[in-house]
Give the backbone structure.
Amino acid sequence: MDAPALIAALQEDVPGASLEAAASADLHTTIYASPEDLPAIARALRDRPDLRCVFLAELTAVDLHPREPRFELVYMLVSLEHRFRLRVKVRLDGNAAHVQTVSGVWPAANWLEREVWDLFGIAFDGHPDPRRLLMPEDWDGYPLRKDYPVQIRMTPHSSQPLQVTEQEFRANLERDRLTRR
């Protein structure tokens, strides 16, 4: 399905939704949706019989600093029934980087939204478990933001290096090799 047809179909289910076609370097249909319309658009993409995008394959973000809107959320969706992929992008301002969660529409969004929040600082309103996922709880900042200080010096607080002797290491390798036969 091409972008104009997708937008027309979504306008039927979400009248007045702010949608626009986006350029794409690959063959995946790509559209922009407004942050306010995202939950309704997500439900329409999942529930429309001619779309049935039931699989959220990926959710990530892009930091376009210093440009505004600073962030773009990128949702990669798959329709297993109709055998196509599409990309939905949402632009977010740097000073208001938040959007409503879609974890109620696609359960896979739960951890993906946590990852985006943890690394970019984009908040997902109504998220059921907004804890850090990859960074330690006491970490300051969001490491994938373009203005994040690269030369940071922090000692890790959440783990200790694994201490094994050379003999234990070799025994573990041998045990692992034997179990794979």
